[in-house]
Structures are given as C-alpha cells and as structure tokens.
UniProtKB/TrEMBL annotation, chain B:
Domain ABC transporter: 6-246
Any Pfam family: ABC_tran
Origin species: Thalassospira lucentensis
Species classification: Bacteria, Pseudomonadati, Pseudomonadota, Alphaproteobacteria, Rhodospirillales
PANTHER family: CARBOHYDRATE TRANSPORT ATP-BINDING PROTEIN MG119-RELATED, SUGAR ABC TRANSPORTER ATP-BINDING PROTEIN
Name the UniProt record assigns to this protein: ABC transporter ATP-binding protein
Length: 365, 259
C-alpha cells in the first residue's frame, strides 16, 4: 500500500537535503567571496592557510562539544570562562607551584571535567534551564580565575609556561607540531616556500601540522562517529528530542546529559591547553565570548537550538566559516569591525536556510 | 480458563490527600482486547501508569502470568513483557523511523573496543515490521515527523510487538486521529490481538471500543463500574456508565444521539 501522494525521492535530492547543507553552501560562498576579494593577498598561500586554519581549528574544538551538548538539549555558557580558568590552573600549578607541566595539564583536565559534571548535575537535579545554571558558572569561573591568578602571582597574566614545558611529553601533545620532515620534504621539492634569511633559512615557512589542528580533526571525527553511528549517539538525539519519551523506552537521559556537559568542559580544556602552550602564558581574560562563538558555529552548522537535531560536520564547517571570515577580512585589508557585521549576516542567512531544510527533512509544520 | 497475562487486584493509589484510584481490579487474557473506558479525570492515566511501572500502587497486588510482582521502573515492566504506547510521547518526530524503533535497544556490531549500531539490520527489520502492520515506508531513515498520527502510533505498536510484548497498553491511540487513520489503528489492534498478545485499549470513545473490544471495563472517579463481555452491553449503557449518571442521557436526547 504505497501512498500515491508521496513522490519518489531522487538520489540527488536525498544526497542534497541534509542537516549540514546550509553550512556547506555557506562555506562555498565564503571561499568564493574571499578568493575574489583577497585571492592575491597571500590568504591562500601555505602561511595564509595555516593562519586561518589554526583559528578555525580553535573554533572547531569548542564547537564539537557545544554541538553534542546542544543536540542533547542543553547549553553551556561557561565554556569561555572555563577556557580562562583551565589556562590559569595550568600556569599556576606549573610555573608558580613548580609541578611538572604534564601533571598540571592532567590536574586542569580533572578539575574542569569535574566542573562540567557539576554543571550537568545541577541542571538535572534542579530542573532549571541550563542557560541559567551555566550563566552562573560563566561569572563564578571568571571571577575565580582572576582572583586565583592575583592571589598567587599578583598579576592576571602568568608567563613562563614555555620554559617550564621544555621537553615535557604531554605539553607536546597540545603545543607541538608534527610531520616536520614531511613539510621539509615538500619545501625541498619546492612545493613550499622556505625562509631565505635569518636563523631558519632553508626551513619551510610552515613548520608542520600543529597539534591544535590534529585535536580539531580528531574531535570532529570522533564526535561525528559517536553521534551518527553509535548507540550513545542515538541517546544524545533522543535526550534532546524528547527527554520524557526517551526515558519511557529506557534511555538514561540524565547520564547522557551529564556526560555531554563533561565532554564540553573537556573540549574547553583542550582549547585552553593548546592556547597556553602556543603563547607560553595564561591570562585570566582568555576565552572571552567563546561560548557564544561556539554556539554560533553550531547553529550555522544546522543544529536546532532546542535540541534533538544537528550535525558535528555542520558545526565544524561553521567553525571553518568563522575562522575564514575573521582572518579573511584581515587579509582583504577590510575594517576589522566589519567582521561582526559579516558574521551576523551569515548567521541569519544560515539559520533561515537551515530552518527551511529541517522542515523538509522532519516534516515539521 | 487460563491465567490472565496481567491481573490487578484492588489497586489503590493516593497522591497525598487525593485518592486517585480507590480499589480497581482489572485483568487481560492472551489474545484479548480489554477496553478501559472512562471520562477525563476518571483515573485512567494513573491506572495505566501503575500498570506500566511509573507509579507504585499504595495498596493492592499485581500479578504477571499468575506470579505476584512489583515494578520499580518502566524498564522493569518492559522486561516483564508489558509495553505501553503513550498517546503523545510515543515517538520523537525529529528522529528517523529506525532510530525511534530501536531507541534504547539499538542492535550493535563491534570491532575490538569499537561498537556501533548495525544500521543495515536495524533498517531491514524496521521495514519488515512496518510492512507487517500494513505500512510501507518510503525509506526507514525518514523522520517520524513526516508520518501521520496513525502511522506514528503504528510504529510504536510495531516496536512493542517486535520487542516481545505480551501485554500492550494503548493510551488513547485514536483520540487525535481522523476517521481513516483511526480505522487503520483499530485494524492494527485487531492484528496484534490475533497474534496472541493481550491488548489493553484505553479510550473514551465508545464506538472505537465497541469496534475491537472483547471485554469492557468502565472507570469512573477512581473506581470500576463493572466489566462486561462483548454482546452483553449496549453502547448507550457504556456511555451512561462513563458519564456516571442521567445528565448525559438527557443531553444526548437533545443532541439527537450523536455523542
């Protein structure tokens, strides 16, 4: 009894109509736009690619966490404060208290993931919207970060991490660069420009693949696999789609949500650790507004703000758009304040398109 | 006569000072459709939530296949073969039919420490089970939101049957549906009953109940007003019992018997 009112769906349409379609179109649009206005500025040279690639990777790391959490039906507004907090914890422990850097990093992860669990626990137990609970933590963590930093070192910027991290095994995992030989080989073949003067003469202008990008790729692949292929991923969708219906069929909704808060905190700490290792310092004001930037990436990527629908690949493309626009306007020599105008425009366009696509897929009316 | 699949004896449920159920007895046999009728506020919801493990009874006993039992959670009831299809919480519309069908019991494949959902198996079972219920899906990955209300109920029923339900509790499955969809759901109930499953059909629509019911129990103000077999009672009498008085009869007269 096939319903004669249903049209057969073509393979093309099925391949096109997917949650990340809006983000794919946005990515193409942004690349075409910057090819036209900044194609000859060095934006698409190896250094240029590395420049916006690193920025996009940073956004991607926090967007993956925010994406899975949003699909599970919750928000975390404390991501930005968590980034500042984690960085300062690492710096205080390693520089001020003299702990080995690897131990400081582990300690920061443990503390932050525990804070993520506390966020989740409070949301579940009180039944308050996560918006309110994590907004409180946005202030609590930022305040604690500044206070701790001033209390121990009398300043809000703590340097000296680079020296302390010299030769540290775990520090390399966050601040290191891999495939140096491969990039040197590319340079020898003439595929990559080399420095012509100075102490690094003969070395390629792009040293290798930063661990930050490796983390971003690994988290995106892991997040996408977890969400679309595993049982736990199905529970993430279910928890955000309709928590009560999910409970009735035995999905452990509370556990799923708390784990997603912990994963978001984990991603924020990865971001913070990479940043501290890159700059060699921590500052109490790091990560400002990152929670909103993560949420923007996720929404551009096609996720539904109320949960139950979204895509990690979409969020990663959202992060790419974000990074390319932010750095691209700089390459194009445009006024940097225009970045926000541009971003707001893309946000609106992407969300309108995503809403339309989602209605086609889910039959919402 | 064989032992009932589920037997509820003198169930009472109090919420603080409110007595929601004041001694309700109910049972369902294999391959039988037992209709539970009642008006809004009669205690139908409380009663089925007790049966499906959401609430614990204040007093009274429950037996499953002759053995006394208490349920600590809905999961507990499910493991004992009692599946409930809730009116509006049956499905998550944003998710695909397959994802909904297997939710909480996803079949998995593994390689070393990695485990993932076996979507080939999940999709083909979903398609088959839906076809058995008389619904041919375009594709199992389509979102439940694209299905009609009757089809959604059918997915939920097919899911319960596939996962080995012995007793199927249907909470007002037809109340939000159109004529055509209602008859589809009633046909599904008939099909399920013939496969030997005990169906508990909760409704306030006498005509829907009469169409498929073998026995009828009326619940009013937290108490049962007796059970009647098919053929022993007329629709008008059931309607009167539900309303619990003469008022409705008079009203019905003035409306020309169309309630």
């Amino acid at each position: 009894m096939t319903d004669e009112r249903l049209k057969q769906v073509s393979t093309l349409r099925r391949a096109m109509i997917r949650p990340e379609l809006g983000a794919i179109c946005g990515t193409i649009l942004v690349f075409v736009f910057f090819f036209m206005i900044a194609g000859d500025s060095g934006m698409f040279s190896p250094e240029g690619v590395q420049n916006w690639g690193v920025v996009s990777a940073q956004f991607a790391i926090i967007a993956v966490g925010a994406c899975l959490l949003m699909i599970a039906g919750e928000f975390d507004l404390s991501v930005g404060s968590m980034i500042g907090f984690a960085g300062v914890v690492i710096a205080i422990l390693s520089v001020h208290m003299g702990w080995p850097v690897w131990l400081s990093i582990i300690a920061a992860f443990v503390v932050c993931v525990a804070l993520g669990a506390l966020n989740g626990f409070l949301v579940i137990k009180t039944g308050l919207p996560s918006f309110i609970v994590t907004l409180a933590f946005l202030y609590i963590l930022r305040g604690l970060t500044i206070w701790l930093s001033i209390l121990t070192t009398r300043q809000t910027i703590i340097g000296g991490v680079k020296e302390a991290a010299e030769g540290d095994p775990l520090a390399f995992l966050f601040g290191g660069v891999i495939f140096k030989d491969l990039f040197q080989w590319f340079a020898d073949l003439g595929l990559l420009d080399t420095f012509t003067r100075g102490s690094r003469a003969g070395q390629p202008v792009v040293e290798g693949l930063p661990m930050l990008m490796v983390w971003a790729l690994a988290l995106v692949i892991f997040g996408h696999w977890l969400l679309t292929k595993t049982r736990f991923g199905n529970w993430i969708f279910a928890s955000g789609g309709d928590a009560q219906a999910a409970r009735y069929v035995g999905v452990p909704v509370n556990r799923v949500k708390i784990l997603m808060f912990m994963f978001t905190a984990f991603c924020a700490t990865v971001f913070a650790t990479c940043q501290v290792m890159e700059f060699g310092s921590a500052a109490a004001d790091r990560g400002l507004l990152k929670e909103f930037e993560a949420i923007i990436c996720v929404v551009i990527g096609g996720a539904l703000l109320t949960g139950g629908y979204g895509s990690v690949i979409g969020a990663a493309l959202g992060a790419l758009i974000f990074g390319v626009v932010q750095q691209g306007l700089f390459f194009a020599g445009a006024e940097s304040s225009l970045f926000r105008v541009f971003l707001g425009g893309i946000l609106i366009l992407a969300v309108i398109m995503n809403t339309y696509i989602r209605r086609m897929i889910t039959g919402e009316r | 006569m064989s032992t009932p699949l589920i037997e509820m004896n003198n169930i009472e449920k109090h919420f603080g000072p409110v007595i929601a159920l004041g001694g309700v007895s109910f049972d369902v046999m294999e391959g039988e459709c037992h209709c539970l009728l009642g008006d809004n506020g009669a205690g139908k919801s409380t009663f089925i939530k007790t049966m499906s493990g959401v609430h614990k009874p204040t007093k009274g006993t429950m037996k499953v296949s002759g053995k006394e039992i208490t349920f600590d959670s809905p999961r507990d009831a499910m493991e004992n073969g009692i599946a409930t299809v809730y009116q509006d919480l049956a499905m998550i519309p944003l998710m695909s039919v397959t994802r909904n069908f297997w939710m909480g019991r996803e079949p998995r494949k593994s390689f070393g420490p990695f485990k993932w959902i076996d979507f080939d198996h999940a999709n083909s079972v979903t398609l088959n089970e839906m076809a058995r219920m008389g619904i041919n899906l375009r594709e199992p990955e389509q979102a439940v939101g694209t299905l009609s209300g009757g089809e959604r109920q059918t997915v939920a029923i097919a899911r319960a049957v596939y996962f080995g339900a012995k007793v199927l509790i249907l909470d007002e499955p037809t109340s939000a549906l159109g004529v055509r969809q209602t008859s589809n759901v009633l046909a599904t109930i008939d099909r399920v009953r013939k496969s030997g499953i005990g169906v508990i059909f909760i409704t306030h629509n006498v005509r829907h109940a009469m169409a498929v019911g073998d026995r009828f129990t009326v619940l009013n103000r937290g108490q049962t007003h007796g059970t009647a077999k098919r053929g022993e009672i007329k629709p008008e009498e059931l309607q009167d019992l539900m309303a619990g008085g003469q008022e409705l009869a008079e009203l019905e007269g003035s409306l020309g018997g169309t309630i």
